[in-house]
Amino acid sequence: MNEKEKVVIDVNSTKSERAGFSGIIESVLRKFRNFGFSLVLAPIALLYIFCMGVSLTPGITLITSVNEWTRESHFILRNAFLGFSVASAFFAYGLSLIFVVPLVNKLLPLKVKPHRASWFSLTVIPWYYHNALTYLVRYTFLDFITPTPLNILFFKMMGMKIGKGTMINTSNISDPCLIEIGDYVTIGGSASLVAHYGQKGMLVIDKLIIHDKATIGLKASLFGDVVVGKGVLVKAHEVVMPKTRLTDVVPEEKKAA
């Protein structure tokens, strides 16, 4: 077979192509896929509890302190102070979470790499964990700090490469560790950046690269194995499918020269 041809993967096979102990584990997971993967992914709940517990601590401390300080106050005044403390506690939770989650992600011995495999493979487990941690922030707090330097800081800490002067006005981002964005890029509101896609029962994980001065329009969708060239405009609601290469836009002055 030509070396350039992709290896055919039997997505229905219950036998792993891996050798050794990891092959045995993967074969068991594929044979009992629903139970097996539920078991393998169950620790995500523990990670959630840890990240949320640590992040909630400052806020709960504030609420407890206010509760003690206002114990002898009039009940309306006390309720007002407690209300403000609860609201403050929410933001204390969110601001703590955007630092706690990337730290946990970095400490995990699971690294996401571009690859193509069955959904029920050991190699996709790091992908599940990385995105689960990303979504914990995305669905509980990230929209409140989008777009600000804080959401860019969070994505950078999760492994995304982001150039200077770039604005990201969306929280619809998966696989941040496989996304590379150049300088002075604008990501429009509710655009979706996803460095993976499903194909014929397989999961394909590959880099999504957006070069300098590109603009991604409102609610546009970009997938893995996509390269957006310099100065390219992806129009609002446009879908850029996997394997697409959008070539650099040449400025008019250079064309004239």
SSE blueprint and pairings:
Blueprint: H1 20-31, H2 33-41, H3 43-69, H4 75-107, E1 115-118, H5 125-138, H6 149-157, E2 161-162, E3 167-168, E4 173-174, E5 179-181, E6 186-187, E7 192-194, E8 196-199, E9 202-205, E10 208-210, E11 215-216, E12 221-222, E13 226-228, E14 233-234, E15 239-240, E16 245-246, H7 252-256
Parallel strand pairs: 2-5, 3-6, 4-7, 5-10, 6-11, 7-12, 10-13, 11-14, 12-15, 13-16
Antiparallel strand pairs: 1-9, 8-9
Question: What report would you give on this structure?
Answer:
This protein is an alpha/beta fold and about 260 residues long. It has two domains: about 20-115 and about 125-140, no CATH class; about 150-255, 3 Solenoid (UDP N-Acetylglucosamine Acyltransferase, domain 1), CATH 2.160.10. Helix content is about 40%, strand content about 15%. The strands form four sheets. It has a five-stranded parallel beta sheet with strand order 2-5-10-13-16, covered by helices on one side. Strands 3-6-11-14 form a four-stranded parallel beta sheet. Strand 8 and strand 9 (about 200-205) form a beta hairpin. It is flat and about 70 Å long. About 30% of the residues are buried.
